[in-house]
Amino acid sequence: MVTVKQILNENPQLMDLLLEGNFGIELEQHRILTDGQLSRYPYPQVFRSRRHNPYLKTDFSDTMTEIASAPTLGATAAVKNTKILQQIVHDQLHEDERYWPLSVLPELNDADLEYAGHNNTRHWMDDYHDYLQEKYGTVRQIMTGVHVGYSLNDSLIYGLYHHGFKEKYASMTEFRNEIYFQLAQGFVLNRWLFTYLFGCSPLLTNRPTDLPAEIQGPMRSFRSSKYGYANLPDEEVAYGSFDQFINQIQQYVDDGTYFSHHEFYGPVRLKTPADTLADIKNNGTRWIEIRAFDLDPLSRSGISNDTLNFLELYLTYTLTLEEPAELNARLVEAVELNNQVALQNPTEQFDWVKDRASELLDQIEAFADEVNAPKIYQDALLFTRRRVEDPSLTISGQIMEKLISPEDYLNYGLLIANDRFSMNRHYEHPIEVLKDQYPENTQQLLRAAIEMGVTVIFEDDSHFELSVGDHLEFFDKTIKFIFPEGPEQYLANMFPELAELTDEKP
What we know:
Pfam family, one: Glu_cys_ligase
EC number: 6.3.2.2
Distance between the termini: 49 Å
Helix content: 40-55%
Catalytic activity: L-cysteine + L-glutamate + ATP = gamma-L-glutamyl-L-cysteine + ADP + phosphate + H(+)
Radius of gyration: 23 Å
InterPro entries: Gln_synth/guanido_kin_cat_dom, Glu_cys_ligase, Glut_cys_ligase
Keywords: ATP-binding, Glutathione biosynthesis, Ligase, Nucleotide-binding
């Protein structure tokens, strides 16, 4: 039977597309005050409708800002897009507000926890919000993280299907689902490695009331453990096969175990634009969403280029593997291994972690050489090896060196938050990371578009697109805009549809 590796070796044009995937980043952070309490300021009205803005929203609490960058080719562009959104939301902070840079908030008093649990003005989400609060508790729902969307190059998928898998799979839809589910399985099987490398929720500053007494910090990642951001133990979904996975989620929705399919909190979701289980089955997965990353306080964007480059190298490596023997047993073991790593002191390392990680990295390095992976992937691999050799170089390991006393957690987080606040206040351009690419007035237009919920697509080095629904406008990047009434009114005149995009209208 033909394999992905055989097809790639016989079709070098497909090999060249292997590391040409798209990334989209969703990042959650809380607005806090400079004394560490949750902000009481309302969500900025300049960001318009949270129901319709594709980039700027809130999650469980109104203090919990969620930014979502558009999918784009490669890690560097994805991080750049995230920085655009971060500048925009930082600029709306009051002088005594900051964004908390870690996944777990500092210790909150009872008033803060009460406020976090009930401060939700997304009225269309009231029932779901109250359901989650009752079932999982406020402490778990206000943990934040990074969700990484990843899609393979479409031409690669098409080429693999037509060069070897057309007979095995009845349709491209079926093949899409299987190939993306293979990526999901691959991540789950070695999630422990990603938790070891990138986990960073080391302290139980706000303890869930149902947490067993023996669970104490410091730990590598409470959020990534079975006690953290996870479904209840008897409501988890296995990654044994695509059909089993989809059918189990659907069953939980049908019998009322889940409020909706959005309640599935597994480490990887299958995604389509319509965001329904039926669309996945009928039209095929378009990307996977990896939900297992804590915020990286060492990276201004919450996740680094090296992390994303290593992730892409790992995922494409798993694409070339055959299904492992005793898959179901391996998946069960993987859950336990991840939990062990998550709950371990971040300055320590199990012997098996170093042994397994070193062997796995050797295999990934051989794969990288075989596909002629560019230097950025080799650098990410080297970066990863150093952290495997020394746990103090992992994200949690570096953080714990600075936390001598419980008070240090708040001070450390505020130090980073204050630095980023100050840096943003000193920016001299509407979108700092675009200062060398677009004129000032174009930056003003792009910024206003994002704030108002207009979709922005950077088509290539010479053009960009703005759209609302089916209404699309195409611009040369060298055009000189004039806004006698400001960029917001310019966009309102161009897109009268914006007037209909309110929180009151679905």
